[in-house]
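From the pipeline queue, job 12 of 40. The input is one protein chain; the requested action is below.

Action: predict structure.
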Amino acid sequence: MNHPCFDQPVSRRNTASIKWNKYADPDVIPMWVADMEFATEPKIIEAMTDRLQHPILGYTSAPADLKTAVINYLSDRHDWQIDGDWLVWLPGVVPGVAAACTMAGDVNDEVIVFSPIYHPLRYLPEMKNRNRVDVPLQYVNRRWTIDFDAFKEAITPRSKMLLLCSPHNPTGTMFSSEELRRVADICSDNNILLVSDEIHCDLVLHPSKTHCPTGRAASDRQNNILTLMSPSKTFNLAGANCSFAVIPDPAIRERFSSACLYTVPIVPTLSYTAAQAAYQHGWEWHQALIDYLRGNLATLRAAVDDMPLLSMDDIESTYLGWINTSRIPVEDAHDFFLKAGVGLSPGAQFGDANFQRLNFACCREQLNQGIEKIAKAVNSVT
């Protein structure tokens, strides 16, 4: 499937882009925050343009057709049957995590995370006056996975919530249905609410794996599971803030909705429009995206393999390379690469300073330019 738009650079300068405005030096290639450098599917832009023909953008609730589209999407793409009443609409997954943390027991109760982990999941518990408990992932056969013994040992009477990232950001691991089932069982047996951030669920790069929603892996335990999803990563709609929580249990859903009240903004009108168009019309574009990202991953992996001071394990999902830079003889690898002209995400913010995270969702030309800068910097200290 050929979508030439992925190979066509799109300038984002002078668009107030957070990603591109971060660095004053125009020679720095930003490869940090997780939004893509690809033009959005035209049918999504067309739907938003059509909505603008109505001259009023008032407060809006989720359209019935969007609810149906999400129900069909979860059934068709992830073999997960849900009820429309389970959906709670949000302007982003991170606000959903924040709201969940406020309903996690009482002040100074514990929220468990598997580290390293997407940095808002690291920082939000303590911002909400909960104690974060880090359970390090274990590294087995070039794959980051869950240390179940350490997980069980970390649980105390004050453990009220687990924040799970599945697929995992930043390591790229896709947890199996068996692993997710074990997580859900442990949480349920200990009365721990399992909050699963599954925003990268449609970015599967491994050729023979599929994403399993945690709620499907443990369908008989899903009343103890709160799942957060969004079309934003799937269709490059990061600025169109529409996400949703799937909460089967009515009592948990009510507590979550109350935690959102007055603190989590409603979803913008055009964001609902974009989400509905994406789920209804974006899948051909999405398949071409996956094909292109797999090519980018192969390009990045080959380049890293040619640099003895760097290493990168299999990325099963996401468009984020988790690169081990610990062998480079410099004090600050992030600053080292920034001076070389590549802006990466420092591993320290995820909980492991031995790594840097690289966003490879860009045209091949830009990826190669970034790789060239990285290679030049590494060769300078070899």
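Job complete. The chain has a mean pLDDT of 97.
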